[in-house]
Amino acid sequence: MPFTKIHWSTVVPLLAVAVLAAVWGRKLSLLADVPVLALLLAAVLAAVHHAEVVARRVGEPFGALVLAVAVTVIEVGLIVTLMISAGDKAAPLARDTVFAAVMITCNGIFGLVLLVGALRRRVAVFNAEGTGGALATVATLATLSLVLPTFTTSRPGPRFSPAQLAFAAVASLLLYACFVAIQTVRHKEDFLPVEPGADDADEHAAPSARAAWTSLGLLLAALSGVVGLAKAVSPAIESGVDAAGLPRAAVGVVIALLVLLPEALAAYRAARRGQVQVGLNLALGSAMASIGLTIPAIAVASIWIDTPLLLGLGATEMVLLAITVVVAMLTVVPGRATLLQGTVHLSLFAAFGFLAVAP
Fold this sequence. Notes:
This protein has a single domain (7-357), classed as A middle domain of Talin 1, CATH 1.20.1420. By secondary structure, the protein is mainly α. It has twelve helices and two strands. One of its GO terms (molecular function) is sodium:proton antiporter activity. It is a multi-pass membrane protein.
């Protein structure tokens, strides 16, 4: 194959694995951290690109599910590697990352999709039944995993006891599994695009089986590279946050932004094609997977990681979560949204970002 025909998304996963083998077990200098961090970001983009290829092969709504699971694997890998390297300082990292992911998806990506859809057709149209069910699941998962630990009394601080953590993990998995069954089998039609004349560009044509299997292999390579390289540069990320004088919660925000940036681009492209429902599926599916899969995975990992797991949100974060759920429900009920709804959600996202750096 001529070199000019080799796509960047093919080179990056292989390069990430090669660099990982070269730096594994070594302490990197500042000069080496910068290119490795750039390669880490490129590997995240490549992973989601290949997940999109696989998603187009399996079709909607399975496609959004594939993307959400791929993003969650990256998120869990980053959280676990940072928890191992940072020790007790990383106790609230899972909470901060998951909460940031919820705010980014349910306000940032959600608002962006509505704004782009409304600009394109004056009114963004979507399926209220499916979107409302997804939003209700996200709200329940967030309450079980992030709000209740602040009020339980079995352990001091915003922590679950081992039994409570096990219950929250199992309940999260069951809720997520139930939603997946509803989305992909029993009520699949509630999550399909409803916009009249939504564009089906050639970019979205189903790839061949060979291309899908190739992308699956490259996806696994990219995910391996992301998790491994994250461990290598984790000291640099923490040092950068400390040097900038930012709160420790900013580390979780950086992880969530890094992981969800490709998802945001995919949702934006879907909205540009007039497929608002696909964009909302991506946003809420990522939020749901971020809680429903990340919390159980971190709960299992905490058995071997000697780091306390702080999950309960503070008062400011709970207010932001509550107003997000209320506003999102009011947005979803009519099944249509204008520029106003998109702007409101983006305003809440801006408030979250500002308070994350200036609490």
